[in-house]
Amino acid sequence: MSNLHNTIEYINSLSQSDPRELIDRSEQRFKNIIRDVSDKVENDSGLQIVMLAGPSASGKTTTAQKLAEEFTRRGMKTYRVSLDDFYLDRTDIPGYSEGNPDYETVFALDLPLIEKCLNSLLRGETTVMPTFDFVSGKRKDESYEITLGKSDAIVVEGLHALNPIITDKLPHERILKIYISVSSRIYDENNKIILNKRNMRFIRRMVRDYNFRGSSVENTYELWDNVRSGEDKYLFPYSGLADMRINSVHLSEPCLFKDTALSLLRDADLDGERAKDAARLIRALEKFNSISTEMVPETSLLREFLG
Questions:
Q1: CA angle centred on 212, ends 209 and 214, rounded to 5°
Q2: 305, 296 in Cβ contact below 8 A?
Q3: Which pLDDT band, with edges at 50, 70 and 90, does 2 fall under?
């Protein structure tokens, strides 16, 4: 806990005296993580596929992009692949015919096609890659081709990227498995948790849903229950299989998310346990100083949620 200074006293003190410095330190810390991962891939000539998995609102998409950009800067032509493009058609999803489709299970993906495509790429073959239309719930007719050169790399991102059902079909010496999440809590001076790891991801998700999808807090809570269940069953059991772990926390984020999150939570029409949870988040966020989101760099991982 001491190395990261993840206490409200540290965050509020620096956010008041020099908010730009708090943001800059958060950004630099994450840049260092991207550098360390890139060093690993660059220095191990056999590695060509990065398998990147993490829970909702962990920053997978931006991290995949940043890794691809850094790899490219170092001379490795890099492709990004989302496992979401390998979804089965909606009518073929397990449980669909019974009226209870399980979109979170790894078996909602076309596993033979994933194996075929990734191994074909590792053999240096020109490989046709699928794309998926989430509106129609079907694979698109449009596809694209990738040919992986000897010095090229692929970043494969998705909830199931660490699942042995997928990774065991690939040569282990050619892949780097990475788990990303918010892996730090925020504490008070008495070592009491103010915001836990899931709280911070929920706040990210809530703000993103509102900013990018016009979605309500009520809808975010509705989806969150299923998201949590899917993570518990299909992601967390395999997080220990990762070769490297990325903690995507930015200590500036409670201050940056505060104003929008408080407005959304206070206006939400919730009851029962969700109302209690929202009230607790409100009390927690009220303890932090506010920082204008205009100070956040356009390249920040937090822009995935702030817009």
A1: 65
A2: no
A3: very low
Q: For residues 46 and 48, what is the distance between their CA atoms, to the nearest angstrom?
A: 6
240 by Cβ neighbours in 10 Å (0-12 / 13-18 / 19+) ranks as exposed
Mean pLDDT across 64-68:
97
- State whether residue 194 is helix, strand or coil: strand
- Check residue 114 and report its DSSP letter: H
Instruction: Compute the Cα dihedral for 128, 130, 161, 33 and give only its sign.
Output: positive
Nearest to 175 by CA among 242, 221, 223: 242
pLDDT tens for each residue of 106-133: 999 999 999 999 999 999 999 999 999 9
Query: What phi and psi values does residue 277 have, to the nearest 5 degrees?
Result: -65, -45
Dist CA 149 CA 75 (whole Å): 12
Q: pTM to 2 decimals?
A: 0.94
Write down the domain spans for the chain: 8-306
Other residues' Cβ atoms within 10 Å of the Cβ of residue 63: 25
Q: Which structure tokens are listed for 143?
A: 């596809």
Q: The domain 8-306 is classified under which CATH number: 3.20.20.105, 2.30.42.10, 3.40.630.30, 3.40.50.300?
A: 3.40.50.300
